[in-house]
Amino acid sequence: MVKNKLKIGVLFGGKSAEHDVSLVSAKNVIGALDKNKYQIFPIKIGKKGKFDLNKVKKMDVIFPVLHGPYGEDGSMQGLLKIFELPFVGPGVLGSAVGMDKDVMKRLFREAGIPIGKFVTLYKDEEISFNKIKKTLGLPMFIKPANMGSSVGIHKVKNEKEFNSGIKDAFQYDSKIVIEENIDGREIECSVLGNEVPMASIPGEIIPNAEFYSYDSKYVDDKSVCEIPAKLSKKTTLKIQDLSIKVFKVLNCEGMGRIDFFVGKNEEILVNEINTLPGFTAISMYPKLWEASGISLPKLLDKLIVLAIERFEREQSLKTTAK
Fold first, then answer.
1. In angstroms, rounded to a whole number, what is the distance separating the alpha carbons of residues 99 and 16?
2. Which residues are tagged catalytic?
3. Rounded CA gap, 39 and 35, in Å?
4. Domain 118-180 maps to which CATH number in 2.60.120.460, 3.30.70.270, 3.30.1490.20, 3.30.565.10?
5. Residue 303 reports pLDDT greater than 50
6. CATH number of the domain at 182-306, please?
7. Is 264 exposed, middle or buried (0-12, 13-18, 19+ CB in 10 A)?
């Protein structure tokens, strides 16, 4: 009986500021995976990046429950691809562009996807508060280009906060994105699939602070999720359609959670995608699918099937000229 079970390696932890969030997500994933179908092997990656690669190579499918750099940005996906292992979630390209807020937004703009105004800055580049203020207005948001879970993000209202926010954001990345403040509701939608993805019902995040910060998400636990979001049918359909478009434009597969701002007149702007969304008890990705009729164990089953299907499709491709 055991011989017929798929060996699922759950990768978690990692060399990222989101290491601790990953531990919580992994615990939930491991607890929800069907023990009758799978042999489950937790594989922890230390904060310095060390892990048992030999153990990884023995798995049938890898389930990365990794957030942030070195786990969600295409690095791990590239390694798993080299070792010819099926893995859950987007591949190298989808992971990389989905992680980099600057590249992601440029692709959105090229595809005609509605987004807010933004400015990209590199470390050691000359930075003019007044010039950026003129372009984006106040308040504005400063973010590391490659980070998630609201790590290193600052809402700034004056030059002093701007300078402090810039300094902090550059601790996490050598490139930062500064965005205009958008006065709108925070709506999220989950996507599942490979070539023909589907979108969940949308949900709304009602933060207990000025924005949905790291503490709001994981520390004080007072933010409210409203599922389904109170939106018109027309707006709901537009968000679902846009979610699938974002997913395809960024070359994503498996899963993704797309975050939106919806204004007073139900104007929709895309904020970003999360290609390996959280699986904590309060995480929106599984909660939205549960409300859409797919329980967490069934969702994990589908993600594993999608990983295997993608792997088999890629394995069938020719790798030589003859």
1. 13
2. 18, 149, 218, 257, 259, 272, 274, 278
3. 7
4. 3.30.1490.20
5. yes
6. 3.30.470.20
7. exposed
Higher pLDDT, 151 or 309: 309
Residue 50 region by backbone torsions, left for phi larger than 0, else alpha for psi between -120 and 50, else beta: beta
How many whole angstroms separate alpha carbon 217 and alpha carbon 208? 10
Provide the CATH topology of domain 2-87: Rossmann fold (3.40.50)
* Biggest CA-to-CA distance, the chain: 67
Residue spans per domain, the chain:
2-87, 118-180, 182-306
What does the alpha-carbon distance between residue 60 and residue 171 come to, in Å, rounded to a whole number? 37
- How many angstroms separate the CA atoms of 135 and 104, rounded? 20
- Burial class, 167, CB count within 10 angstroms (exposed 0-12 / middle 13-18 / buried 19+): exposed
SS3 279: coil
Nearest-angstrom CA–CA distance, 99 and 177: 12
Asked if pLDDT for residue 259 goes beyond 90, the answer is: yes
3-state secondary structure of 214: helix
What is the Cα–Cα distance from 39 to 62, expressed in whole angstroms?
A: 12
Q: How far apart are CA 63 and CA 56, in angstroms?
A: 10
Helix count and strand count (H, E) for the chain: 11, 13
At 130 the three-state DSSP class reads helix
Residue 75 has pLDDT above 70, yes or no: yes
Give the Cα separation of 129 and 167 in Å (integer).
13
Give the C-alpha distances (Å, rounded to integers) separating 112 from 31, 182, 283: 41, 18, 29
CA 317 to chain centre: 28
pLDDT score at 26: 97
Mean pLDDT of the chain: 93
What is the C-alpha separation between 131 and 319, in angstroms, rounded?
Answer: 50
